[in-house]
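Hey, can you fold this one?
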Amino acid sequence: MRLDECAAVRLTGGMGKSSSRKRSVAVSAAGGDDETARGRLLSAATRLFCKNGINATGIDAIINEAGTAKTTLYKLFGSKTNLVHVVLETEGKQWRDWFIDASAQTKLARIFPALKDWFRQERFYGCPFINAVGEHDKDQKQLRAIAMRHKKVVLSYIEGLAGEMGAAEPTVLAHQLALLMDGAIVAAMVTRDPGVADTAGLVAGSLFGPSKLKKPKRAANAPAQLMAV
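Sure. Predicted structure:
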């Protein structure tokens, strides 16, 4: 049963109740419809933008896939531009949550195996931020700002992992790994080969080997053997 049908049943069942009760139910049902329509529009727009590109995807294609009216899209998002921004912000948060969860246990060593899992997915279409900036005017500041906010959060997280593992220069290592990640994502999108993550992982391994870690400080006058790690 669709939400609009559920609302009709509730309203019919309350025929003998007060008008204020009817108005309350009607408002609740309308709000539920908006939330459901919003979710469908976001889901449809995300898939179509990622698969076909933002510029190649028109409003009609989005509402046809979402099963909503055009007026609903404009009521909820105001414009296609606003919808693009919401899609990127939402997709970015979902990706970051997945990435942090995927690398939480084995830290830096898990980054590229996690990316490989992502590359294997049928609906892997590359990074939505790289794609969005790539297909728009390079002076487009709003999309670039959204992309940079996303990258800063990811960089900060990787830098934290690098610091935890004792990297001599966590900030530098975070930027190096982020470049490898971006390169692997683009290569996987172009080649459709998840194995590029393995190559990137091998390079990454050379960046956080023992020689790149901080050397423990020796306490004054302490025997050398006591400082062995």
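Residues 19-52 form the longest helix (34 residues). Let me know if you want another pass with a different chain boundary.
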